[in-house]
Amino acid sequence: MEPNILQEALLSRTQQEDEDYLWSFSKILDHRTVTNGKIEVEVLWDNGETSWEPLAVLRKDDPVTVAGYAKERKLLEQRGWKWAKSIAKREKKFVRMLKLMKASKKYQKKSYGKKIYKFGVQVPRTGDVRGAMKLDKENGNNLWFDAQKKEASTLRDMDTFELMPENFDLTGYQYVLLIYAWDVKFDGRRRARLVANRKVAIGPPEEDVWSGVVNTELVRTAMFLAMLNGMKILAADISSAYLMSDTKEMMYTRLGPEFGDWAGKLAIIRKALYGLIGSCAQFHRHLCTELEKIGFKPSKADPDLWMRDAGDHYEYVAKYIDDILIMSKDPKAILDLLQKPKGPYKFKGVGSPEYYLGGDVKITYSGDSIAELSLSAKTYVKRICDKIEMLMGWKLKGYMNPMDPNYHAEIDDSDFLTGDDISKYRMMVGSLNWLVTLGRYDIHYTVCTLARHMMMPRQGHLHAMRRVFGYLKQNYKFSINFDIKEPDFSMHKIEEYDWFPLYGNTKEEEPYGMPEPKGKPVVTSGFFDSSHASCLMTRRSTTCVILFLNNTPIRWYSKRQNCVETSTYGSEIVAGRIAVDLAVKMRYNLRMLGTPVKGTTILFGDNRSMITNTSLPYFTFKKCVSAK
Fold first, then answer.
1. Is 585 helix (H, G, I), strand (E, B) or coil?
2. Three-class SS string for 47-58?
3. Residue range 28-53: mean pLDDT, rounded
4. What does the pLDDT look like over 548-578, one tens digit per residue?
5. What do you get for the CA distance between the two ends of the chain, in Å?
6. How far apart are alpha carbons 458 and 407 in whole angstroms?
7. By percentage, how much of the chain surpasses pLDDT 90?
8. So what's the pLDDT on residue 108?
9. Has residue 209 got a pLDDT over 60?
10. Looking at residue 625, what is its pLDDT?
11. For site-directed labelling of 456, which of 123, 230, 303, 371 has its Cα 20 to 30 A away?
12. Angle at 193 between CA 388 and CA 198, to 5 degrees
């Protein structure tokens, strides 16, 4: 089974808001096949009600319980249920997963009513307008009230609702309750979002629900290519993005008092309102259509990184929901085609990116090309450290490394955390994970270690977490400086061996459908290592990999190995195999972005016997190594 299926399901349950708790289900009663071959299951909710829900939706929420139902009803070989085989095939592991999932449901009920924090700010629970106003009163401001007022005004301006005419035929329409979802942005701004809170008899088809966002690794790659090929970078945010597209779902509602003279009236939902299952996909489709109109096509490296032939190079547009990043020699011309009056959108925050997806971007131009480009998270680090100190009552002490080398979180036997400390610990893990995504790979190993204990954190884990933030506070200026110069490997002796007797006159396979290579070529290289038996509970080793484009770090990886190796040599073999896989993927992405790849990928390791033996054509393994 996929290693993150259970973790995602458990997190989705433990991070539920109020309305999600009320609609938590306890049992699956039956199943049926509806139109278009879609499968629905009859669910018994915790409040005693039953309803038919799409299997695709329930599978994401609780894959273990659904797999248990499929196994009990002997459905594992039937169409639409075969995915459950990978979860249910191992009896002992499956039983343990079921127990863990049930325990998470019990914990969810016990933890109902606990406070929620984000970026160090207490956030009202979804639907709790009184709670939001109470927080305003306690904080001596009107931030949540102003956010609610702004949202209602925007919805009216965007023609989201149409007042229902008298004697309107509601056949096929379903009623949906509107509630406010509260959020805090990375810069402290409060956001109130009026969303649909519903459970419907028949949801939209699965293809009308899916929507993606660009991979952050590909964003770094596109930025590197922009600097390499003399392009500019322009960022923009689409205002009221979802409401730009119409909804396919037939819904009506009753408007609240914040809508003024419309208060208490029935209205038909005409736009892709947040909370409707298909809204994100509708906007995604709308933006894709507009990009296609101006000549862009989705790249095969990432369908949310679009590209267009510009003669001697390619232009790129990266889209992350309603944030777009344009890489072109004339990005303003592309933006003009998308914004009014030529296009349908209204943009805000247009300009050279200074803060993208929570990270700092520093760009210095020399004429029309980029002279310096760096990515960091110093603003995010400073803000989150200040919030953590205020929230926890800590005075963070500086450290030279993020974790005590002698500390092993897996054998920590201190007391378990209780109450709000559990939510705070998880909030800290989430913040650190995002920092890793933004480029702080120096804490990657530490974050992965502490994240394994999110379900049952201990006092010792919280103390280790405090050290991480102390390290970040002292070392907040860490940044990735883009260097497009090709690396010099002349000082390294690279042995070449004759592999012809084994593989013949074999060449690297070029991926099918790759665009014509254009622009300047790039050199790929990387480093890999393993920490043998670093987990004292399982004796599993940890792999760390970092890959470069020319002299710029683009991809990093830190994760426990799936197997247990008895020697350092074996764990290094596994780490090398993972590094090769990541390098192959990087070369594929570059080719699918139309980039010439120069030569082979040079990988560096620190285990001479492993490097030598894997380089010799006549070498045969004399040890048992599970290179998984």
1. helix
2. CCCEEEEEHHHH
3. 77
4. 999 999 999 999 999 999 889 999 999 999 9
5. 14
6. 14
7. 43
8. 47
9. no
10. 57
11. 123
12. 115
Q: Sorting pLDDT into bands at 50, 70 and 90, what band is 9? A: very low
* Cα→Cα distances 86→4, 110, 206, 474, Å: 13, 31, 21, 45
* Residues belonging to the chain: 628
Residue by residue, DSSP assigns 478-495 as -EEE---SPP--TTS---
Q: What are phi and psi of 191, to 5 degrees?
A: -135, 125
Tokens linked to 191: 């956001």
Q: By the 8 A CB rule, do 346 and 339 touch?
A: yes
- The percent helix, strand, coil of the chain (3-state, each to 5) is 40, 25, 40
180-to-115, 131, 597 alpha-carbon distances in Å: 17, 11, 49
State the helix-helix crossing angle for 378-392 and 420-438, rounded to 10 degrees. 170
Question: What's CA 42's distance to the chain center, in Å?
Answer: 30
How many CB atoms within 10 Å of residue 599? 12
Alpha carbons 239 and 608: distance in angstroms, whole number: 55
SS3 letters across 13-55: HHCCCHHHHHCCEEEEEEEEECHHHCEEEEEEECCCCEEEEEH
- Give dist(CA 286, CA 118) in Å, integer: 31
Sign of the CA dihedral running 240, 242, 247, 249? negative
**CA 28, chain centre distance (Å):** 29
Quick one: which H or E segment has residue 370?
A: strand 369-376
Residue 381's nearest CA partner among 120, 11, 189, 143 is 120
Average pLDDT for 185-190? 76
CB 588 within 8 A of CB 301: yes
**What is the percent of the chain where pLDDT is above 70?**
86
Beta strand pairing call for 251-254 and 174-175: parallel
Distance between CA atoms of residues 349 and 187, nearest Å: 14
Residue 23 has pLDDT above 90, yes or no: no
Tokens for 271?
Answer: 């736009």
- The pLDDT of residue 199 is 52
474-506 pLDDT, tens per residue? 999 999 999 999 999 888 887 778 888 888 888
3-state secondary structure at position 539 = coil
Nearest CA to 242 out of 151, 370, 325, 173 is that of 151
DSSP assignment string, 599-615: SPPEEE-S-HHHHHHHH
Is the separation of the CB atoms in 23 and 31 below 8 Å? no
* Contact between 359 and 377 (Cβ < 8 Å): yes
Six-digit token string for 626: 């599970």
Amino acid identity at 405: P
Segment holding 60, helix H or strand E: helix 55-61
Calpha distance 599→397 (Å, rounded):
46
Rounded distance between C-alpha atoms, residue 252 and residue 270, angstroms: 9
Is the model more confident about 250 or about 291?
Answer: 291
- In this structure, what token pair is assigned to residue 18? 């109020």
Q: What is the mean pLDDT of the chain?
A: 84
